[in-house]
Design brief:
Strand order of the largest sheet of chain A: 2-1-5-4-3
Structural class of chain A: alpha+beta
Number of domains of chain B: 1
Shape of chain B: globular
CATH architecture of chain B: 3-Layer(aba) Sandwich
Oligomer: heterodimer
Number of strands of chain A: 17
CATH class of chain B: Alpha Beta
CATH topology of chain B: Rossmann fold
Helix content of chain A: 55-70%
Radius of gyration of chain A: 77 Å
CATH superfamily of chain B: Response regulator
Strand content of chain B: 15-25%
Chain lengths: ~775, ~120
């Protein structure tokens, strides 16, 4: 990575150097220009001096030539003098010129050549002058030769060359001065352009390396701040800004990942809310979390009111029910394994490798059988209350990372809410189901109404009572379905059914309140009391009967005793009265015995004392007192030659026979024969008592052996009795393991038969 | 004086017999309601002691029939029953009975009652 600071520093340093170079260039250029300008000026001036010196020399040459010529012509001393003067002047000027030309390259030879010509010319001139002094002719001759003139012309040529050279040099120097200025100017302009270009380059660089990426960063961070996590952050620069961008991108990815996870959580939450059963909840949770964390199975447990966890649902396991059994069997070990304190504290606990933590053979076995290798335990808490536990299972060891832990913690909250709702729903459904079952199954009629008195529901019992089915009754008014006078509600009433049947009922009513105490309906419980009424009637009839039966002997006892005490009576009369008292007492005792027998039998306190019995002897024994008493009846026993020994309680068998024979006599008021037959029949002995009495119709026989039942005929009712005799008799026979039945024909007579087992074993239930 | 005792229980008839013995009463007996009516109509007793719970025809009905027949309506009818409830008493009186004895009854009280009836009858005669 190229460091932006370093780059910038380098750039600025370069720019500084450039600026410094520019400044230096301008400074140096200016200085050079100034210096050049001064030296050129000096040179020009010196060249000018040279030219002037050359010009003066030329003028001296001309003066010398002119003076010499004039002297030669005239010989005038003045001219000679002028010539000498000019010669001195020229020598001086020449020396000056020679001195001035000395520093100039190429000039001294030119000057020397002039000097050479000059000196030649001067010598020739002097010769001519001497010739003149010698006379005019000599002079003329010499002059005629013209040496001096030719030399002068050569000198002049040289001198002209020199002057030309000087003039050229002067012009050259002047133009060189102009060139120096121009060069300095050009350099300055070039440097300025370079500086400008450098500044532009730096600006461009800054724009590219800093400005654009900063803008991009700004907009990327703006997008992130605005919640756009979909667009990647990319700068394409390799510096600090690029690093910031890459950090931002990482952040964006993580945030996007989080958002995605949250989104999935939200989705999961929406799904779990819809899960109404714990099984469904477990499946939905597994479906939702599987893509996030890779767990393939889930176990859901709910806390019982006591706090114990109970397995409630499995998801993702093979559907054979074996896993549930295995888990339930290992309940105690699993309990020990679970870090309940941490879980109750709401902490997600990972168990990366169950094989390592499984502490008992049972758990090892469970791990092997279920194929679960690692777990994530997600506590389900709602408002701090531990509701249950979700165990997510992997079939491979799976360490939980922080992100998954956090996700599961969040998911746990959602699931806990759903679990609470599902548990509540389950409870409500159970309660509603119970209520519904009670409502429909209850034996009393129940009718529900809305606040306007319209029927909303009736149960089966009420359907039967009123004749309205629930569908028909719904929406009708209370009075229509249940026509009961207002003042009868709460007490006994007569309900007239839809088909006119009159049923005695009691009605109790109560309003139904909602949570805020408003009446939202009413419930009426209608009890069919016809049975109770019947029982009441039976009871009062029974009391009447018992009272009559008790009072009759009591009357005799009381009456004869009073007479014995208060009246004088002959001895025989006294005796017969005492006999009456005795008889009545016996009768009273028998009645009380019967009532007690029933009571004992019903409470299970009557116990048989069985022993071997000779039935023939028993029959004869009970028949003899009847024979003595019943004058109009013939009592006969028909016994086979040999009888097997039967097992029975002698007192109870006697009681059975006495009751049956007593009835036979009682219900054959016209007298006749009473025949007792004993027959051996396989494992049992059958005893029959036949009479020639009033008999019974089949209708009368229906409830013959029921307690307190008395055939509803004047003869029977008025014959006395408690209605207990046959009931007791039948119970006694059955206690012996036998059977009692009756055959009868109205007006012809009845046969009552019973069996007693001959085996040792008493199969009866009364033991 | 003739009187009739109607009761299905022979011992009760015996008791009445013994109670009224020796006082010059002519005691007629009946074992059921039908017999009681027959005897009452045939013999014309001055007093009838009627048990309520009797075979064939109950005492209340016998009483009703006796009281509705002008020939027998003069007969004093005394109900003699084991039923002691208020309801039974009212039924008896509604049927036209003149008095009501509840079993167990005092034979001497019965004797007194019969004596009173005889005196009333003899005064009327």
């Amino acid at each position: 990575m190229r460091r932006l600071r370093v780059q910038l520093t380098i750039l600025l340093a370069l720019l500084g150097l450039l600026v410094m170079a520019w400044g230096a260039t301008i400074f140096l250029g200016a200085r050079d220009a100034a210096r050049n300008s001064a030296s050129v000026q000096l040179t020009v001036d010196r060249v000018d001096g040279l030219r002037q010196a050359a010009t003066r020399l030329s003028r001296d040459f001309v003066t010398m030539d002119t003076s010499r010529r004039a002297y030669l012509l005239t010989g005038d001393q003045a001219t000679l003098q002028a010539q000498i003067q000019a010669e001195e002047h020229a020598s001086e000027g020449f020396g000056q010129l020679r001195r001035l030309a000395l520093p100039w390259k190429g000039l001294p030879p030119l000057v020397e050549r002039v000097g050479t010509e000059y000196r030649a010319w001067v010598r020739t001139g002097r010769t001519e002058v001497k010739a003149r002094q010698a006379g005019a002719q000599a002079a003329a001759r010499v002059a005629a030769k013209g040496f001096a003139d030719r030399q002068f012309r050569a000198l002049w040529e040289r001198q002209t060359n020199l002057e030309d050279e000087l003039a050229w040099r002067q012009a050259a120097y002047a133009s060189s001065q102009g060139r120096t200025y121009k060069a300095a100017q050009t350099l300055a302009v070039r440097t300025a352009v370079m500086v400008l270009a450098a500044v532009l380059l730096i600006a461009l660089y800054l724009r590219r390396a800093v400005g654009a990426p900063a803008d991009a960063l700004r907009s990327a961070s703006g997008r992130l701040a605005g919640g756009d996590l979909g667009t990647p952050v990319e700068l394409g620069v390799d510096n600090e800004l690029g690093a910031v961008a890459s950090d931002l991108e990482t952040m964006r990815r993580r945030l996007a990942g989080r958002m995605e996870a949250l989104e999935r959580l939200r989705h999961l939450s929406a799904q779990v809310v819809g899960a109404t059963s714990l099984q469904r909840l477990a499946e939905v949770v597994l479906d939702g979390l599987q893509p996030e964390i890779g767990a393939t199975r889930a176990i859901l447990g709910a806390a019982r009111p006591g706090g114990d966890l109970v397995l409630r649902a499995l998801a993702g396991f093979p559907d054979d029910g074996g896993v549930a059994d295995d888990i339930v069997k290992a309940d105690a070990e699993i309990r020990e394994l679970l870090p309940m304190a941490a879980l109750r504290g709401g902490q997600v606990v990972g168990m990366a490798n169950l094989e390592r933590v499984a502490s008992s053979p049972t758990l090892h076995d469970l791990v092997a059988r279920t194929g679960v290798r690692s777990l994530a335990l997600v506590p389900l808490l709602s408002r701090g209350r531990f509701l249950g536990l979700l165990a997510l299972c992997w079939t491979q060891p799976h360490p939980l990372d922080r992100e998954q832990e956090a996700l599961l913690g969040l998911a746990g909250n959602q699931i806990a809410g759903a679990l609470e709702a599902a548990l509540r729903l389950e409870e409500a459904e159970r309660a509603a189901g119970e209520a519904r079952a009670v409502f429909y199954a209850i034996a009393d009629g129940v009718l529900l109404t809305d606040p306007f008195g319209r029927v909303t529901a009736v149960n089966r019992a009420l359907e039967a009572l009123t004749g309205w089915t629930e569908d028909e009754a719904r929406g009708r008014t209370y009075a229509e379905v249940l026509p009961i006078a207002e003042d009868q509600v709460g007490g006994p009433a007569d309900l007239v059914s839809r088909y006119g049947r009159k049923v005695p009922v009691t009605v109790s009513s109560a309003p139904i309140f909602d949570a805020r105490g408003r009446v939202v309906g009413g419930v009426d419980v209608i009890r069919d009391v016809s049975k109770e009424r019947e029982i009441d009637e039976v009871k009062s009839a029974l009391i009447s009967t018992v009272s009559h039966e008790l009072r009759t002997p009591l009357t005799l006892i009381h009456g004869f005793a009073e007479l014995l005490v208060l009246r004088d009576m002959p001895v025989e009369r006294q005796r017969s009265s005492a006999v009456e008292i005795l008889d009545a007492s016996r009768r009273l005792a028998r009645l009380i015995d019967d009532l007690l027998s029933v009571s004992r039998m019903e409470s299970g306190r009557l116990v048989l004392d069985p022993r071997p019995l000779d039935l023939g002897t028993v029959v004869e024994r009970i028949l003899s007192p009847f024979r003595a008493m019943a004058a109009t009846h013939t009592l006969r026993a028909k016994l086979p030659g040999s009888l097997p020994v039967v097992w029975g309680d002698p007192d109870k068998v006697e009681q059975i026979l006495t009751n049956l024979v007593g009835n036979a006599i009682k219900y054959s008021p016209g007298g006749g024969e009473v025949l007792v037959t004993v027959e051996h029949d396989g494992d049992s002995v059958q005893v029959s008592v036949r009479d020639q009495g009033i008999g019974m119709s089949p209708r009368d026989m229906g409830q013959l052996f029921e307690k307190f039942y008395r055939v509803d005929r004047d003869e029977v009712r008025r014959a006395g009795g408690t209605g207990l005799g046959l009931y007791i008799t039948k119970r006694l026979v059955e206690m012996h393991g036998g059977r009692l039945w009756a055959e009868s024909w109205p007006g012809v007579g009845s046969v009552f038969s019973f069996t007693l087992p001959t085996s040792d074993e008493l199969a009866g239930s009364g033991r | 004086m003739k009187l009739l005792i109607a009761d299905d229980e022979p011992a009760v008839r015996d008791l009445v017999h013994v109670t009224l013995e020796g006082d010059d009463y002519e005691i007629l007996e009946a074992a059921d309601g039908v017999e009681a009516l027959e005897v009452a109509r045939g013999e014309g007793p001055k007093l009838v002691l009627l048990d309520i719970m009797m075979p064939r025809l109950d005492g209340l009905e016998v009483c009703r029939q006796l009281k509705s027949d002008p020939d027998t309506s003069d007969i004093v009818v005394v109900m003699l029953t084991a039923q002691a409830q208020e309801r039974d008493r009212d039924q008896g009186l509604a049927a036209g009975a003149d008095d009501y004895f509840t079993k167990p009854f005092s034979p001497l009280a019965l004797l007194n009652m019969v004596e009173r009836v005889r005196q009333t009858q003899s005064q009327a005669d």
